[in-house]
Structure formats: structure tokens, C-alpha cells
Amino acid sequence: MNLKTHITLILLLISVSISAQVQFEAKLSKNKLGVNERLRIDFEMNQDGDNFVPPDFSDFTVVGGPNTSVSNTWINGKRSFKKTYSYFLAPKRVGKFTIKQAVIEIDGEVYKTFPVNVEVTPAVELPKDPNDPDYVASQNIHLVAEVSKTSPYLNEPVTVVYKLYVSPSTGVSNWREIDNPKYSDFWSQNIPIKNISVQNGQFNGEEYRFVELRKTVLYPQKSGELKIEPLSLDVTVEVPTNRRDFFGGRMMTQVNQRVTAGGRTIKVKPLPEQGKPENFTGAVGDFDLVVSTSKNQLNATESLQLTVEVSGKGNLKLFELPKPKFPSALEVYDPVKNDQVNTALDGMYGTRIENYTIVPQFKGKYPIPGISFSYFDPKTEQYKTITSNEMLIDVLEDPNNPITATPATPNLKQPVVASNAFAYIKTTTKLEPLEKSYFFRSKVFWASLIAPLLAIPLAMVFRRRRETYLADESGNKRRAADRLAKKFLGSAKKSLGNKEVFYEALERALHNYLKAKLGIETSEFTKDKIESLLTEREVSNETVNSFLNVLESCELARYAPVTNVMMQQDYDNAATAISAIDKQIR
To answer: Do domains 20-121 and 473-584 have the same CATH topology?
Structure first.
């Protein structure tokens, strides 16, 4: 066998071995695209495999796939096999991104693709091809955010309705939200839509069908230009094609279309300073005030109810009810709140009630001054004040106590009533002789003799425990942080009504509490790390979210106006979250 034959055999063996090699690679439809375009990525292999694991498409939204295709052909006795997993991706933002490795198992071996790079540019102008389904869908489907007011007053309701318009020639089979708007500068509440119904309307002067997807009521919490973030949807659109079915009707094809309701800017007007009453607490709307008592005449030590009721339409959950002033001779308990507030498309309406329980102790006539409540009416753009009438509580003499107190009404003399109230004081004595006692060999003598001997081992045990306690540096730090958390939480409670001092103390309390429980420094505090550490310690997601919401409220309070009611709610939520973490943490 000559040299030429050897070389031929070697090349043949090499070609056979190369053809037998497994190939697994990722292929992109394009390496550069606009943020409004779609990207296709194919994961191809030349041998069949199992347990395919795609990469994490965190920078993209999967709008289609995985689609699987298999090709198995024989040409001139040579087999050709190809299996493909395909995904259709929509970029979430502009930038340069890397799609990481995909993994598959072939014949017991694990294979991975190489990472691929993609550059996403700002939106580009798409080709206007009337036969292109994507272009047809973009021209026949629109998402609109309709805002009821673009220049409201502070704490005046604004309604945002998101409508999806679809032309009669196309259809929609499904949609899902991609980007949800966050209303960081607003108090917000979504109005539930139980049944989505199709309605007829007009868009840009043309006939369209539309559905209302979301309704939200917003109350701006600060003045100035506030932005409403856009809502984005991925919609499956049914677009007609040029093909016909057996009966001559046009066949439809499905494409995925991303639609966005553009961001809106609201110019919020501050409430006027001129004419603002001193007792104004932030109520904006149209309200009524009713102050009533369950009875006006009663015996001492009996109880009555005084009710303060504010009803109407406006920001009912965002202000405090007026507080009545009571004579010092009346024992008054903390009010019981009973709020019956609903939120409709045009804002909040309902009633807020506070019931005070009053127990007079002595006979007399006790006047309760009238209560004033002020609010701003955005319709008339004026402040209004409602004042209740003065009420008189007539307390009759207590049959169990004939002594009467000085009445609340001035310049009215009261008769002095004789009583046997001091009959319990003894006026005679009964003396008994004391027995002589000796200290030596008494119980006290033996106890004082043995006590020092018993104290020595107790002192040794106490010393060892104290040394162990002092040597535990991490434990001492946690205990110190725990004491600080309690101290600052107490400071926050004392500072209710002073926004800056309250939220600073509340935030320091939460941070020191985390130091005590998690053993981390303030410089390490991030929401993601706090959530991760608490979850690892088996704290429920609901409790973690509650704790993080309080932290977020502390941050937002620096930029937004806050009422005393909101501060009390944040304090209660902080105390509840700390208590829940103590019970759950492991």
C-alpha cells in the first residue's frame, strides 16, 4: 500500500469523524434591531436530544415559541437530520444584551450553545407593506389611556381608563400585560372590571370596536407636573391574508403585536393659600358634617355615645376627622372608627364615623363646644367650613354617691350635702403586747449565716454567664440594635404629626430591627437583599412585602405630602410587620 493510499484512508476517516460530531448552535434572525421590532432565535442540532433548557430571556419578552421543527432526509444514501427550537422575542428596552447558553442532552452528553450578542436601537420605521401582517396589525390596533382631567387640584380625583381599539377588519384573540404603570406620586385604586364587553366607537374619526381593560382612580399627592407611566400589552392579533378558504372567504393569520398607551403628564395645581382655614386637614371634595349624641340626660357613671360623622364625595381616606373638645370632668375613651367608603370611577364616596364613649363621674351640666370641619371644594374653588351646634350634657345625681361635684356651668352654687363618707376611719385603738424575741439562734440568725456560703457558687455561675454574654460580640450587636429599634419606634410614635421627624425615626427603627434579626450593616441594605434574606429565614412573602412597603412609604414621604392618618397607618403597619417577622423568622 503506497503513501497515496494511506493519505486517502486518513482523510476518509477524518471526514467520517467530523460528520459524526454533534453540532448545537444558536442562530439569530438579526444581530441589530429596533425596540419596536421582533427577533427570532433558533437553537439547531444535527442529532436528536432530550431535556432542552432555553436561556433566560430576561431582557426580552417571549411573544412566540417554543416552536419545534424536525427535518430528516436521505440524499444519495446519506442521512441529514436537523431539529430546531425557535423563539420569537420582543426587546424590553434599548441597549446591548447577551443571550446566554442553551443546554441539551444528546446520547448522555450535555451540550451548550455559545452566547450571542444583540444590539437594540431606538424604534425604527417599519416598512409599510400592505401585505405584511405585522404592518396591518400595527395600523388596526391601538391602546389609548383616556384621562378625565389634565389639570386637577391637589387631592382631586383623576380617572384613567385604558381602552383597546380594534378595527372591524381584524380581531384579537388574547392579550397580556407587559409593563404595568406605577403611580408613585398618586394615591391610586383600580376599579375592578367583572365582564369585559365589546363596544362600538370611533378612533381618529373611523369606526372601531373597543374594550375597556383597566380603570384607575388617582388622587395626586403633590403639586407640579406628575407623570403617568405607560401601559404596554402583547396582543395576539388575527389579520386577514390574501388566501381564500374552500368557500371563498379570506383566511386569517395570527401575529403578535406590542401596543403601548403613551405616558401622560398631569399638571397638578396646589390648593390656594388665600382663605385657607387654620383647621384645614386636607379634605378636598363636597362633604357634610353631623355631630350627635345617643342621649343628652343621664345619671353619673352611666355612658353615652357621641358620634362625629363626615359624609360625601372626595378624598375620604386621606384626611383626619375633626376632634371634639370635652370638659375635663368627663371621662372619654378613644374613638371607635367605622368607615364605609367606596371608590367609583369618579372618586371616593361614603361615610366616615368616629364614636366616642363618654362616662360622666359627677352631677352637673357639661357643655360640649361645636365642632368645625373645613374642606376645599374644587367645583367652586373655595374653602368651606361646617360648624356643628353646641351640645349640653345634663348629668343627674348619682344615687350611689350623694356627694356632688362642682358643676361645669359657672356661677352656680351647690348645696353641701352631709354624708358618712369618712365613717371607715377608726377612732379607737386596740393595743396588744409584743412577745420578746432573741436574734441568736433565730431563723434570721441561721439564714444570715448560711446565705453567704450559698451566694459563692451562685456568684461563680453568674460570672461565667456574664463572661459568655460579653464575649458574644455579634449577639451584643443584635441586642443593641434591637434596643435601638424599640427606642426609635417609640420616638416615631411620639413624633406622629411631624412628618420629617416621624419618618426619619421610623426608618431608623426598621433598619436597626433588621440589624438585630439579620446581622447586616446599614450599608448592605437593599430591597432585593432584604427580601432574599427574609425569604431564606422562612418569612412569608406577604410579611416581606408588608415590611418593604413600609420602607418604601418612608422614602416616598420625603417627596409627597402626608396626613396624620397616613402616618398612623405606616406606624401600625411597621409594628404589625415587625411582630409578624418575629413569629415567623427561623
So the answer is: no
